[in-house]
Q: What sequence folds into this?
């Protein structure tokens, strides 16, 4: 499943290059609870087609009525400079538009964005570049600028700057059953997923559409993948010959998440191998995660995949995880409690 922003921009590009009037809507401010975060976008075509969202659906319906159907006294124009629209100011409006209690959001409406500019933005994102899109509020003029770091939306007195990035990517080492569950969830979360496994017996049973399946050795695959700050590498084979060198290769990259499946004992053994035989240090392995996942008492492959995906998303979103969700910490605590109970019984 493609990155939602890119999907919205592709639809908007196609509508505008076909000469269809269209509206680009951006969430620029929120107060209290809100269904979608600041920076979220949706595109609305004059024929009523919608891509993306800014709420649970009621605000989209209102915008369609005001723009596509030109209904009501507050019907929106088809052209002109950008306008702001605010929803949920009163309790009645919040209820009407399905906003959470106390929720308010402000939108910027851009009428007929330039199709060539949108096409250039999509092309840059397809090439893996991170881009600032700046909108001059007075007349809607747009400038694009490449950037090196993600940034929050900035609304100044005369300009809006929204940062768009290429898809997040996930490289999974191993094409086993758990990889299928994790790949499926990652796609639904907007990741472009690649799976690497040189073992034909595992690849032959692969059944997840939309995933790039690679046959090269994992360390070579990581090198060719060129992980960046929007990439993660997850090793799921339990085979040191496949996992270890791939993980080492990944640790030399800015990938935001690098981890391997396995028990506490297996992960400790992996670290010891890497230090004793592959010239690594504890400091060099600081970014290597394992056992991966958050503690949810998972036992089955789909449950373990859920826990891994949750950890990947938490790291991606910069959310610190409490120690009582760390797998190793919880299991160590459980082991100590069990040993204490055994001593008391004895």
A:
């Amino acid at each position: 499943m493609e990155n939602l922003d890119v999907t919205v921009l592709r639809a908007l590009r196609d509508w505008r290059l076909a000469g269809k009037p269209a509206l680009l809507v951006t969430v620029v401010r929120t107060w209290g609870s809100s269904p979608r975060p600041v920076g979220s976008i949706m595109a609305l075509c004059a024929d009523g087609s919608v891509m993306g969202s800014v709420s649970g659906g009621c605000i989209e319906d209102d915008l369609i009525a005001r723009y596509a159907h030109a209904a009501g006294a507050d019907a929106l124009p088809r052209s002109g400079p950008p306008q702001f629209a605010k929803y949920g100011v009163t309790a009645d409006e919040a209820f009407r538009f399905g906003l959470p209690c106390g929720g308010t959001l402000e939108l910027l409406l851009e009428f007929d964005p330039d199709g060539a500019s949108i096409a250039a933005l999509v092309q840059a994102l397809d090439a893996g570049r991170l881009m600032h899109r700046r909108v001059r509020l007075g007349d809607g003029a747009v400038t694009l600028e490449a950037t090196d770091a993600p940034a929050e939306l900035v609304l100044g007195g005369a300009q809006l700057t929204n940062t768009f990035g290429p898809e997040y990517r996930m490289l999974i080492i191993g094409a086993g059953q758990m990889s299928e569950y994790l790949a499926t969830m990652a796609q639904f979360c907007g990741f472009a997923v690649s799976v690497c496994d040189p073992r034909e017996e595992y690849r032959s049973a692969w059944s997840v559409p939309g995933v790039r399946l690679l046959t090269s050795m994992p360390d070579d695959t990581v090198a060719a993948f060129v992980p960046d700050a929007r990439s993660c590498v997850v090793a799921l084979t339990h085979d040191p010959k496949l996992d270890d060198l791939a993980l080492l290769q990944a640790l030399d990259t800015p990938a935001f998440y690098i981890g391997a499946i396995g028990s506490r004992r297996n992960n400790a053994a992996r670290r010891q191998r890497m230090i004793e035989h592959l010239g690594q240090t504890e400091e060099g392995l600081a970014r290597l995660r394992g056992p991966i996942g958050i503690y949810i008492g998972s036992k089955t492959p789909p449950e373990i995949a859920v826990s891994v995906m949750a950890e990947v998303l938490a790291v991606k979103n910069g959310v610190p995880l409490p120690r009582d969700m760390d797998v190793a910490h919880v299991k160590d605590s459980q082991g100590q409690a069990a040993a204490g109970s055994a001593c008391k019984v004895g």
Notes: The chain has eleven helices and 15 strands.
